[in-house]
Amino acid sequence: MSETLADYAARHGLKQSAARPPLRKYIQDVWARRNFIWAFASAKNISMYTDSRLGQVWQLLTPILNVAVYYLIFGVLLNTSRGIPDFIPFLVTGVFMFGFTQRSIQSGSKSVGDNLSLIRALYFPRATLPLAIAVVELQQLLTSLIVLMAIIFAFGEPLTFNMLLFLPILVLQLMFNIGASLVVARLGAFNRDITQLLPFIMRTWLYASGVIFSLPTLMGPGSKLAQYPWAADLLQMNPAYVYIELSRHVLLGKYSDYVENTLNMQHVGQLWLYAVIWSVVALVGGFLFFFRAEERYGRG
User: Fold this and answer.
1) How big is the chain by its Cα radius of gyration, in Å?
2) pLDDT, tens digit, for every residue of 90-114?
3) In the list 34, 104, 118, 236, which could disulfide-bond 177, CB 3.0-4.6 Å?
4) Reduced to 3 DSSP states, what percent helix, strand and coil does the chain have, rounded to the nearest 5?
5) Gap between the Cα atoms of 64 and 62, Å rounded
């Protein structure tokens, strides 16, 4: 009888190079490549603007220009700034923090498809690719935070210990971004149409996340949103809104006082609960979702 390739491989102890390992072993392999993830992200971050004359300066200019456009349209023309103290720091915080999640998800959706040659040439845990994308966006955000903090202090916000709470918020949002990136990375690996659809989804998400308006203000007495408490609850559970609003409460003391004293709303504790739940569910669920298709990436 002629021997099959499977029998031949078994007899010689050969294994499929891209076979999915046990979950624990896979996590260990990903952790062992943490230096590769950081180096890969740093190299990608540097190469991102090599073709432009201003280079890395665009990391600062892009969010600033976005803020300028949003302020002109929504702050000046549509007057969504009414009642909000120091609307510019409020808007900058929203744009920067939402952009962190937006870019992580949109870039993560292409992380597998754009690296097929690397996947087919070498074996490594494929989860390192969307993880590296999340690190790229973290590095860009850390650069942008220089501008954010400068604007906050320029509008008279004092340096307080409460601002240290921004660090755990950033960690929780990073965990959520990684999980979401892993989900869209698997979807985008097998259906590239996802990458075309995501910009429309993200734009809609932006308008529902309190980036350019204050949800507590819209929930005030006599407002239309106050007549539909279930809609207000859904908007408050929105993960993008949760991380943005928490960031505003710890960085912008005037805005925090405005919400708590003027609007009589004490919802920060609830936001912290939502933030932890979203980060854990997204990270664990996203990692498992991506892991289950490990042996399929790069085929075809």
Assistant:
1) 22
2) 988 998 999 999 999 999 999 888 8
3) 104
4) 75, 0, 25
5) 5
